[in-house]
Amino acid sequence: MAVTIMPTDAVDIAARRTALRKRMKAWRQALPAEERSAASQAASERLVSLASALVPPAPGPVALYVPLRGELSPLPLGALLAAQGMQLSLPVVVAPDAPLAFRAYADGDRLRRGAFGVQEPRDEQPLVTPALVIVPLLAFDQSGQRLGYGGGYYDRTLERLRAEGSVTAIGWAFEGQRVETVWPGPHDQTLDGIVTEKRVLCP
pTM of the predicted model, to two decimals? Predict the structure, then answer.
């Protein structure tokens, strides 16, 4: 059986990314719930106040996500946007190697537990194509690169959406998730902006 040997530098980068994922997961999980909640509200208000700098005029549906494992929550942002009459959606895992799909979502909708324990809209909710995608992450850097969980779902999704038309991808993170570099790979999609509880970064 043939064995593929990765170059030493590629092995080193993979190890660094794995170690960074582990460190950031632990850091995020250790944050007190009240601190996570306050940061989520602050980030949401910051994006809404600066939306014109990040979001194209008259945007279509906005894709959020239901937080898990200590993620910064975009749900307060959803409440602010819904109050302005904007349509919301949530991602749905279709298949292990496929881009995500998005189904319409409103506060109070019954959700189901999908792949990896992620809360998803039920099948009766219509499919939509978002114009703005709020992207979860484990770490980000100044150049707009993100470190995700390693499954590649958002990278495949953003690649497809960008090929099909205009979409804005905003990373959603705690300020403490900012690092010097995430050692991006060739298939990683650069974010259009990153919002934390303290700043808006436009690469």
Answer: 0.91
